[in-house]
Amino acid sequence: MTTRQNPSGSAKENRAVQALRTVIAFLLRNWPYKLLALAVATTIWATLITQDPTLTREKVLSDVTISVTGSDAMKRNGFVVTSDLSESLSGFTLRVDVPQGQYQAVTASTYNPRIELARVSEAGEQELRVAASSTATNGQVTEITPSTVKVTVERYITRSRIPVTVVMVGDMPEGWYAAAASADPPTVAVSGPESIVSSISRCEAYLDLSSLPAREGKIKNAVELVLIDSSGNAVNADNLEVTNEGVLIDTVNLEQQVYPTRAFAVVTDGLVTGTPASGYEVKSVSVDPANIRAAGTLASLEELEALYSEATVDVTGHSETFTRQIRVTRPTELAWISQGTVTATIEIGEVRGSRSFQNLRVRTVGLPTGTKATLSEQSVRVTVKGAENELNKLRSNRITLTCDLSGLESGTHTVPVLADLGLDEVTSLEVEVVPASLNVTIQ
Fold first, then answer.
1. Which pLDDT tens digit goes with each residue over 21-42?
2. pTM of the predicted model, to two decimals?
3. What is the distance of C-alpha 310 from the center of its chain?
């Protein structure tokens, strides 16, 4: 049996095989160009994708720190933040729809997350919304967490002409004196929260005298300022601005003169006037302290010999010691004296003298009955010393001189002469009898 082939079917198969061979041959002949074309096409496609802002991806930015803007504008509007923002500006999260082409490039700072203080218009606790900048290039911020920040706001005020007080501490080296320092500027302006600024009473500048050089002349220093409230306590100046004519300052300039010193005696000659009570006199005049330290130029100190009181002390009618405070004159050429007054002690005492009585007779007492006594001297001299007022009371006819012979036996004895001044009251008079004793013979 003979098999017959279909001529038309064989032709179709031959044409298909031929077409396949033609395609394979084409691909094999120009494959580098075809790969280049594929790469170019892919690049063009990627470029078109990145330039299309409508094609975005979400990006989450964590642990973001936001900034604060408008502080100066807020102060110009009369307000200031008094709460501590240091812990309130971190830990934020931003969700952003970012164009495909910027996805890797953007960071949190790209969107400038911030709170804007310039919008604050009243004091008290405020809740400010966190703002961010969105652009077509960098994408849209869709969410900020947390979305707000709480702040405490006070009125911002300025007080002018607050005085600067110089406080000098420590001591100058021995032998030197520093005059009062002048401050430049003498007053300052303080700006800040109303609750703090309104409590300030003065500004102090502390100057340590021990740090000054020991030399004559003008000394200049710049020292820090300390704000003091009405209770005398230092004020925390972190939220305050101290200015002079609109310029921020934190120090003031101090200028003072330094002088050498020397001790001078206070003259007491001529210090008292008048006459004490009758029978009394000025025994001594002294002042405490006896010497006063003074400061001035070296030339003025060398010319000065002593210091004098401004006035005298009247002792008229005084019969007892007394004290007075007296002022000491400061010569114009001196810059300083250690103290302006001294205590003067005026010692008042009785006028003392002596009186002598000659040829006063001596008598015996206590002589045993039936005996007689013979004195080696019949008369003696008596000298009395003491206050004039008491001496004036003495009368020779009232003075009694005796030798007491009581208990003595016959023979010669040395017996003291006893004097009785004949006064009614006890006195402090001193009595001297010459001779003080006599030889007595008893028979």
1. 776 666 566 666 556 655 655 5
2. 0.61
3. 35
Render pLDDT for 118-152 as a digit per residue (tens, 0 to 9): 989 999 999 999 999 999 899 999 999 999 999 99
Report whether 155 contacts 111 (CB < 8 A): no
pLDDT digits (tens, 9 = 90+) for 209-249: 999 999 999 999 999 999 999 999 999 988 899 999 999 99
Largest CA distance in the chain: 227
Which CATH number, 3.90.228.20, 2.60.40.2970, 2.170.120.40, 3.40.50.300, labels domain 158-258?
A: 2.170.120.40
Instruction: With H, G, I as helix, E, B as strand and everything else as coil, classify residue 237.
Output: coil
Return the closest-CA partner of residue 283 out of 348, 352, 353: 348
Task: Pick one of 2.102.10.10, 3.30.70.1520, 2.170.120.40, 1.10.10.10 as the CATH number of 266-350.
Answer: 2.170.120.40
Q: With CA atoms as reference, report the closest residue to 432 among 349, 358, 375.
A: 358
pLDDT of residue 31: 61
- Residue 43 is predicted with a pLDDT of 59
Per-residue three-class SS string for 382-395: EEEEEEHHHHCCCC
| Assigned CATH class of 352-442 | mainly beta
93 touches 56 (CB < 8 A): no
Per-residue pLDDT tens digits for 377-417: 999 999 999 999 899 999 999 999 999 999 898 999 999 99
Strands 411-416 and 437-442: antiparallel
Domain 158-258 and domain 352-442 have a common topology: yes
- Domain borders along the chain are 7-50, 56-146, 158-258, 266-350, 352-442
Give the Å distances, CA to CA, from 390 to 55, 59, 69, 216, 395: 131, 120, 100, 61, 11
Q: Where are the beta strands (DSSP E) in 231-351?
A: 241-244, 247-248, 251-265, 272-273, 280-288, 291-296, 313-314, 322-327, 334-337, 341-350
CATH number for 56-146 (one of 3.40.1000, 1.20.120, 2.60.40, 2.170.120): it is 2.170.120
Whether residue 45 is predicted with pLDDT greater than 70 in this model: the reply is no
Side-chain half-sphere of 443: how many Cα atoms within 13 Å? 4
Q: What angle do CA 435, 438, 439 make, to 5 degrees?
A: 145
